[in-house]
Amino acid sequence: MDSATCLALAARRGTVHALSVHYGQRHPRELRSARALARHFGAASHSVVRLPIGPLLDSALTQHRRTLTRRPGRSIPPTYVPARNTLFLALALGLAESRKARAIYFGANAVDYSGYPDCRPEFVRAFRRLARLATKTGVEGRPIAIRAPLLHRSKPDIVRLGERLRVPWALTWSCYEGGRRPCSTCDACRLRRRGFKGAHVRDPLDIAGTTP
Does the domain spanning 2-59+78-199 belong to CATH 3.40.50.620? Predict the structure, then answer.
């Protein structure tokens, strides 16, 4: 839901080149949603990069034998994927410079989130500095902007913004499991449910398992 809202914002401000990464996550369901959303918002291109690093990364999102459930007292859940956003943004930075894009839109959220260290404002600030130092455009004084427009918004705020931007929630997917319906128990499902409930908007995916 965060990525879809971020895409909707970017599409209002210019030509969009969407990027998704198949890194060995538990299921491809989110990639199908990404393709549908890129078409819906008229992206000029949608690149799906295969980065088969899943077996190398210690995460419940890349190793099926691990549980998705957070242990009591743990600030960082087992669904954290080591350095994932660093890797993704590095790919996006290369694509943006190659396509002569002016900005990268990044759907990180540091308010209602699972506690991932690479979703914090400190991380975004650090990557902005890297983008200035590590690219030709940055050295020449034309740095690519790293925009995280949802960073300080709550999940209900994101749903309300998405409603104004007409985000097709039925095309989105948040659940860490890859079933036909959201599991309603993982962190992503719980945060999504909190967002729709707080915004008083019905979620078409019916995460709560209630009858529409």
Answer: yes
Bridge partner list, 186: none
Buried b (16+ CB within 10 A) or exposed e, 120-133: eeebbeebbebbbe
How many Å apart are CA 129 and CA 143, to the nearest integer?
A: 9
Structure tokens at 133: 């130092």
Q: Specify whether the CB–CB gap between 20 and 170 falls below 8 A.
A: no
Count CB atoms within 10 A of the CB of residue 193: 20
Query: Residue 177 in contact with residue 26, Cβ under 8 Å?
Result: yes
Domain residue spans of the chain: 2-59+78-199
Identify the three-state secondary structure at position 50: strand
Per DSSP, the three-state class of 83 is coil
Strands 45-50 and 103-105 come out as unpaired
Q: What gap in Å lies between CA 71 and CA 58, rounded to an integer?
A: 16
Q: Return all residues near 127 (Cβ < 8 A) that are at least 6 apart.
A: 86, 89, 146
First-residue to last-residue Cα distance in the chain: 20
Per-residue pLDDT of 131-186, as tens digits, reads 999 999 999 999 999 999 999 999 999 999 999 999 999 999 999 987 889 988 88
pTM across the whole model: 0.90
**Residue 118 DSSP label:** G
Given a contact cutoff of 8 angstroms between Cβ atoms, the answer to whether 88 and 3 are in contact is no
